[in-house]
Predict the structure.
Amino acid sequence: MLQRIQTLFLLLAAAAMLLASVTPLAFFVYNGDKVVFEAMGIYLNDVLNDSTWGLFAVSMSSSILSLITVFLYKQRMLQIRLSIFNVVLIVGFYLYFGFVFYKLFPVETLVFQKVGVGIIMPVIALILTVLAIRKIGADEALIRSLHRLRK
């Protein structure tokens, strides 16, 4: 289990999504006020303005799914399916982020300051999950080729 490279990829993807759920996603200025966008909420001048618990739930679900997938090493096809679902969750994280962002603030009066670490982590998790899918698929192909040799 731990000697496979895809296990490392999946563990790092889980850590990246966990980091995305606890660190700030972006920093903005809205009508002269400081806005911090986090997975748990949008803070206007360090006061919770809007709750974005759904974003936190998606990121934590993705992190937990990566950890569960690590322990299904004997069922490679299920690992691949769960990893593909995890990719969909990560893309859904960005779609939900964009939806909440454009729903709550008019873009004309919003001034971008800097990107937080949390918005970059899902991209890293996405890349690591795709690499894990490829390695799991290679393991499955190797096992199937060995079964053909035995027959």
